Write a sequence for this structure.
């Protein structure tokens, strides 16, 4: 035994390969802690990388608006990115010494906020990191809870949409992020949820609370039905099958005129009621969706940190190895598909209740891709990341409405940059696994 | 009492006979080695035993129960665990999570208890964590529970594989080249660990190329060549078996 311990001690200090996420680092924007130490090389970096980003984007826009616009864009971008980097370094300097392991830009902003607000007596009793997250959570809950009081209807409307997409993206995150099964037809479950509420409500006259469990059961069942043939496949093949499933569902909805009213869609869907109160104002609906979104995050977090979540992550990491420790991989993949579909169905029901109108147009392949982008942008398997990703991808197109035609271009180039500089997503990495 | 009995086991890949009518038995609590030149069918044999490949014909029985056609996870549940020659860890998970997830088939918390965090769920989680630490201590990794598995040094990764196998609470452990790529000191430590597993009442079958290990710890040796069993016996019998010498060194002229 002595020799064993001796050996372990000897071999431990520098792990030969740090973390797989380190692979992206050679191309990464230098983190604050590293940026400081680099000195001369760092300042060159500070200049070159923004130059590269700005130049690339400007060239991308050149064909659309001519040289003048491209040059202006270049200058603006260059200035913006440089400032951003300078700010990042500054933020890193404030807190860098204390907790230099994180290079999240958002966390750095947070650190400054905490530096300013975090001096109240109650917080000083808590450990540094606890205090920081307490302040963050308090701040966020105040902003989120009071939104209908200061935001105008347009903003609240977008926030409601964000809430629905958070539920949808969290559902996809279970399938793609945790279990590692690429699903390109996720909008199908969203559609089934929305249409089942629409049909139950308009054809049978069932209310929201009666339709909800029925719709969710139907969606979960359809998750199972898709999973059974799909789970014999993996990787690209699975992706193609799910894509096909997504298209089939959309085409059925589009062409089954007598039942779904085809491309005209179904209108006049009733809003939900709580204790006899009609949820119709956008402010009321905001809280309604918020409750469901919180429920989704709460439940998914807990499941992810249980043996079920661990089994999903194990399957993603290595399927043969997971079956060799006794995980029934087929059953757990089924489970993952159905559980993911369940949340997509919930999002669909809420969507139908909000819009009071559904049509196949809302459930195209682009919708599946958009949700997948939310998951990837936020970070595969990261619950807070996926929330952030959903909000960004709902908000961004709205904010870019001014530039109409170019917003998809901007979005696209943004995603390209993200994949180059932060392949693990905004908040992914650090291993995707969960510590309960 | 024989824990494992393999009768007439055959596996064909197209025209290639990877394993050809192999018979052997493993006594409970013993250490057995399977040796043979490269391509003799040793790993295929392991794959058949653990349900990764389906044998073409033959019977594998474990505790008088036929397991030939069972799924991988059912075989693990009955008490057969294995390690892999090319290490298969859950690379992005931490060391302790690797061992925790490996207790999967011995735990049963469901979806609902995970959501409401019932007391039975919390007790089980606590027990899983404690047991995981015990297994880590057994293999000598207790100092690194929170290290990401892929950043462990090679030798420790091999140990973690064994901890994972142990966490499934097996009666029979199949080790596929446990000392491959290790230096003599590490090999010595690994032999000690294997002996320790035997002390815990586990039956062990290992595939090994290092003759010092094979001769040093096994009670029984099965020699395969071109998929066929060419010899079986104690280390001293195998050492002077002309068939074995021929398979390894070629025929005398």
């Amino acid at each position: 035994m002595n020799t064993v311990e001796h050996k372990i001690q000897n071999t431990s200090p520098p792990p030969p390969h740090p973390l797989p996420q380190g692979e992206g680092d050679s191309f990464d924007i230098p983190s604050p802690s590293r940026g400081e130490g680099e000195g001369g090389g760092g300042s060159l970096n500070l200049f070159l990388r923004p130059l590269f980003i700005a130049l690339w984007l400007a060239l991308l826009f050149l064909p659309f608006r001519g040289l003048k616009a491209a040059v202006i864009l270049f200058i603006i971008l260059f200035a913006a990115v440089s400032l951003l980097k300078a700010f990042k370094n500054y933020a890193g300097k404030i807190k860098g010494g204390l907790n230099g392991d994180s290079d999240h830009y958002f966390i750095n902003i947070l650190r400054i906020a905490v530096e300013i607000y975090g001096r109240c007596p109650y917080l000083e009793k808590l450990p540094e990191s606890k205090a920081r997250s307490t302040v963050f959570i308090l701040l966020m809950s105040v902003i989120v809870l009071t939104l209908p009081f200061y935001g105008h209807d347009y903003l609240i409307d977008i926030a409601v949409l964000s809430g629905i997409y958070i539920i949808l993206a969290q559902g996809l995150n279970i399938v793609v992020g945790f279990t590692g099964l690429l699903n390109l037809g996720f909008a199908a479950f969203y559609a089934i949820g929305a249409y089942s509420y629409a049909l139950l409500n308009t054809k049978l006259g069932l209310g929201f609370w009666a339709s909800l469990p029925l719709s969710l059961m139907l969606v979960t069942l359809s998750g199972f039905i898709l999973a059974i043939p799909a789970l014999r496949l993996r990787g690209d093949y699975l992706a193609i099958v799910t894509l096909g499933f997504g298209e089939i569902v959309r085409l059925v909805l589009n062409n089954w005129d007598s039942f779904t009213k085809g491309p005209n869609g179904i209108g006049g869907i009733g809003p939900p009621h709580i204790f006899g109160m009609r949820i119709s104002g956008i402010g009321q609906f905001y809280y309604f969706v918020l409750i469901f979104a919180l429920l989704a995050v709460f439940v998914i977090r807990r499941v992810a940190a249980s043996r079920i979540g661990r089994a999903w992550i194990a399957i993603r990491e290595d399927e043969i190895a997971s079956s060799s420790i006794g995980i029934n991989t087929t059953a757990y993949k089924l489970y993952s598909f159905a559980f993911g579909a369940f949340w997509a169905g919930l999002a669909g029901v809420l969507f139908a209740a909000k819009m009071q109108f559904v049509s196949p147009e809302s459930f195209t392949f682009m919708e599946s891709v958009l949700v997948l982008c939310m998951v990837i942008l936020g970070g595969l398997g990261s619950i807070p990341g996926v929330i952030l990703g959903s909000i960004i991808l709902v908000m961004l197109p709205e904010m870019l409405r001014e530039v109409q035609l170019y917003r998809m271009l901007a979005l696209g180039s943004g995603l390209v940059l993200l994949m180059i500089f932060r392949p693990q997503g905004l908040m992914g990495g650090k291993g995707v696994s969960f510590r309960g | 009492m024989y824990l494992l009995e393999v009768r007439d086991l055959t596996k064909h890949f197209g025209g290639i006979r990877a394993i050809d009518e192999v018979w052997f038995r493993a006594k409970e609590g013993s250490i057995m080695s399977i040796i043979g030149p490269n391509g003799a069918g040793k790993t295929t044999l392991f794959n058949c035993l653990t349900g990764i490949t389906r044998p073409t014909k033959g019977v594998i029985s474990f505790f008088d129960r036929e397991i030939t056609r069972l799924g991988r996870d059912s075989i693990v549940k009955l008490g057969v665990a294995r390690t892999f020659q090319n290490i298969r860890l859950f690379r992005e998970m931490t060391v302790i999570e690797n061992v925790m997830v490996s207790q999967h088939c011995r735990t049963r918390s469901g979806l609902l208890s995970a959501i409401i965090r019932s007391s039975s769920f919390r007790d089980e989680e606590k027990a899983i964590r404690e047991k995981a630490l015990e297994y880590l201590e057994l293999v000598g990794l207790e100092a690194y529970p929170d290290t990401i598995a892929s950043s462990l040094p090679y030798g420790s990764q091999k140990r973690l594989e064994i901890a994972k196998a142990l966490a499934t609470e097996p009666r029979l452990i199949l080790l596929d080249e446990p000392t491959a790529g290790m230096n003599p000191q590490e090999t010595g430590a690994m032999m000690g660990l294997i002996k320790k597993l035997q002390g815990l009442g586990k039956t062990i079958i290992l595939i090994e190329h290092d003759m010092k290990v094979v001769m040093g710890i096994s009670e029984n040796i099965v020699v395969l060549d071109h998929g066929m069993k060419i010899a079986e016996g104690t280390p001293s019998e195998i050492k002077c078996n002309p068939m074995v010498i021929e398979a390894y060194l070629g025929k005398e002229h």
